[in-house]
Amino acid sequence: MIALQERGCHNINLVTPEHVVPQVIEAIAEAAALGLAIPIVYNTSAYDSLESLKLLDGIVDVYMPDFKFWGVETSRRYLAAKDYPDRARDAILEMHRQVGPLRFSPEGIARRGVLVRHLVMPGLLHETRAILGWLAGEVSPDTFVNIMEQYRPENHVGEMTADGAARFTEINRRPSRDELAEAHRAAREAGLWRFA
Fold first, then answer.
1. 159 phi and psi, to 5 degrees?
2. pLDDT 10s digits, 103-131
């Protein structure tokens, strides 16, 4: 971390670190004693335990959670985790409690706060609307949101199952321009105004 800071990095970005939170805390404590002063970024799926997040209170400067799906059945189908929506909501509320809305340095570099990422999925605009409405209404209308447009079918999408049917055919396409435009419109209509 110190070497990265000395090379001019703007932050230390921890990607999906839930399983090593105790070690991260120890490493940051050692680095802080050596002069670490750049922000700590916690980059996550939001499928984090509240216990881990509470340990990070006062340590993490910027939280970057994804919020993938709103519905239990959607999460069960695509993530094999029907508790994902509840876990994500709880995690994002805890993150916001700790650091608040995203704030920037005079140079435009994120210094502290929450930036929520949401990947627009084909045919699932009702999920997008629910997530964006919740962020504006239950977290803060000042929530900084990255509405991501880069979904493309990969991995098991479109793969044939043993019975000869294609898997996940309903998301075996990119989101349309209309769907992407509607996602951005839904964010503004929900009251959100800060976008990446």
1. -65, 145
2. 999 999 999 999 999 999 999 999 999 99
For 119, the token pair is 């990947």
Residue partners of 149: CB distance under 8 A and separation at least 6: 120, 175, 180
H/E element holding 43? strand 40-44
Whether pTM exceeds 0.90: yes
Pairing of strands 110-119, 103-104: antiparallel
Tell me the CATH number for domain 2-195. 3.20.20.70
In this structure, are residues 46 and 91 in contact, taking their beta carbons and an 8 Å threshold? yes
Which single residue is written with the structure tokens 């079918």?
153
Give the per-residue pLDDT at 154. Answer: 85
Other residues' Cβ atoms within 10 Å of the Cβ of residue 106 = 6
